[in-house]
Amino acid sequence: MNKQRKTYILLAAVIIIWSIVGFQIFGYLNSGEEELTEVSYKKFTPKQAKEKELYTVATHERDPFLGKYNQPKKKVVRTVKKEKEPVIFPSIQYKGFIKNKDKQLFILTINGAQKILQVNQVFNDLKVVSGNNREVTLKYKGEVKSFSK
To answer: What parts of the sequence cross the membrane (predicted)?
Structure first.
């Protein structure tokens, strides 16, 4: 083959390839509006769920390592003890002691008010249990407390 002939064949091949590429580009640019086809949608209906079988694991009472049968453990019911709320005494000051024959009287300041009480006397849930010239013992809502001068 001659050199000129090869050049013409290659030139023809290049022209054919470029014409195909150009035709595709031209066809893409001048395509116009495409026809839109309507898509028919089916109404969605979910499948009915099947009820699943429940399985339980069987317990074996025999210990595989020791070969002994385990006794079922008894449940221990523990009772919760409620803690008593701390009793808050009113503000009390022991001021003095008066002894008259067989009576013992105690001078107390309770919440700023001065009162004279004797043994087993109650004032505002506050009971005088015992006392002497140095201290007095009082009971308030089940709790006993001593107050000194």
So the answer is: 7-29
- The SS3 assignment for 52 reads coil
Identify the CATH number of the domain in which residue 128 sits: 2.30.30.830
Contact yes or no for 18/11 (Cβ under 8 A): no
Q: Domain for residue 116, yes or no?
A: yes
Q: Which domain holds residue 115?
A: 92-148
Q: Which amino acid does the sequence have at 86?
A: P
What are the pLDDT tens digits along the chain (149 aa)? 788 999 999 999 999 999 999 999 988 887 766 677 777 778 888 888 888 888 787 776 677 777 676 666 777 888 888 787 888 888 889 998 888 888 889 999 988 889 899 888 888 889 999 998 889 999 998 889 998 88
pTM of the model: 0.44
Residue 77 forms part of a structural domain? no
Q: How many CB atoms lie within 10 A of CB 128?
A: 21
